[in-house]
Amino acid sequence: MAKVLLIGDGARENALAEALGKSSKGYKVYALSTYTNPGIKEVVNNTGGKYYLGNILSPEEVRRVIKDTSPDFGVVGPEDPLFEGIANVFREEGIPVVGPDKEDAMIEKSKVWMRQLMWKYEIPGRLRFKAFNNLEEASKFILDFGGSIAIKPSEQVGGKGVKVVADLQAYLSEEKRNALSKGVDRIAGLVKDDVKLIIEEKVDGPEYTLHVLTDGYSYLPLPLAQDYKNAYEDGIGPETGGMGSISGPSWSLPFINEEEYSKSLDIVRLTAEAIKKETGKDYIGILSGQMMLTGLWGPTIIEYYSRLGDPEASAIIPRLEGDFGEILEMVATRHLSKAKINVTEKPSIVRAVAPLGYPLDKKMASGHKISLDLPKMREIGCKVYFGSVAIEGMSLVTKGSRALELVVIDEFNNASKRLDQCFSMISSDTKLIYRHDIGNSIDTQVEKAEIVRYTYKARERAGILGVSADWSPNGGLW
């Protein structure tokens, strides 16, 4: 019986653990987490594995668990362990693993590295950008600039710190633009590297994510998903790691056509090949394009993930027909060419449940008891993945982030009603954040995509796809 060691402790890892536990290969699932995740623990217990608690960012800790378990392969779920070289540790110990080495995970860790790579290898869907390590220069650029921009931390900080300045704001009074430029300090303060922030040309359109499995030889795309970042209803409030997601129907989304799906896959594949040229290492694991359909390019890269998105994974994995656990092993052992995967025709909706305080005040969101009628929720067709919630004694206690992810596979309207019904079966000693609107604005996004599609197709016919005017007032971005 093969053994697999899973690294991570969130809802994404709960979904991965479930897939591994259901595999016809009969895997024994072992896990290393920072706290006891109820969903992961259930799979570990059911498969006869063992649950380890420790620092998932520590190469020494992971090495110790590898030596103790002698797994046949590993799966690294979150991005931070990849940035710290945890996949490298598996390979140094001779264990195949799903997850790129830290050198390749730079595609997610550094937005500057990612943008430079795309321009160096002329990958379609790239945006113009300018990187700053001098905050005075960045502030001056914002003050002098007269067009639309997106200001971001230069490295991955969990979806926090993005600031968009749209055209209608571009010619604000000097006082207001001075106030805006002060926000640069706050964004830059999230970053540890010398390069503090990156300013990109702003684009607009419906967003979506394409996750692609690769063993360095073959590429296996998964169904598209869309993430909902903002904390509150109607897309307002601070950005989060994701308050919900949709996937489907079938392989795409209602607002992305087959040609756009294919072009998106080409972009991700070309990027994986460019990473190998740049680092000398095959990309083995999951490379995910966080994309937007824009009038500039059509499919356009906003950023990359070096792993499955969360909560996108909760929307995608339950829709996969076949043995996804075995496919993960094929990725790790570099036999992905043998993999076959199908997907259910019906779409899915995921809605996260988080304690009040998330995402701005982790302390406020931590330490609250939460309870749910899990058997009844499962009975009405609602899958529950446990996220930032731990078993402590006889209670479930929040750890400061999204506690639960609720999933229903059904037509969007039906799924929405059942999710609301499931949410009513959850109680806590604090107010819970939950977006009722996720999956309810599909028609609006279809209309938006049609407008964008008309624009980029016209540019394509004119031979100016991806060509944009210089947007610095002094003669060019570069």
Structural class: alpha+beta
**What is the number of E strands?**
25
- Termini separation comes to 56 Å
Write down the CATH class of one domain.
Answer: Alpha Beta
Known CATH architecture of one domain: 3-Layer(aba) Sandwich
**Number of DSSP helices?**
16
Notable characteristics:
478 residues, alpha+beta, Rossmann fold, Dna Ligase, domain 1, Glycinamide Ribonucleotide Synthetase, Chain A, domain 4, globular, phosphoribosylamine-glycine ligase activity, phosphoribosylamine--glycine ligase
Account of the protein in words:
This protein is an alpha+beta fold. Among the domains are: 3-99, Rossmann fold; 128-201, Dna Ligase, domain 1 (2-Layer Sandwich), CATH 3.30.1490.20; 346-433, Phosphoribosylglycinamide synthetase, C-terminal domain (Glycinamide Ribonucleotide Synthetase, Chain A, domain 4), CATH 3.90.600. The chain has 16 helices and 25 strands. A hairpin with a 3-residue loop joins strand 12 and strand 13 (236-247). Helix 1 (11-22) packs across helix 12 (324-333) and helix 8 (135-144) packs antiparallel against helix 9. The protein is globular, with a radius of gyration of 22 Å. The N and C termini lie far apart (56 Å).
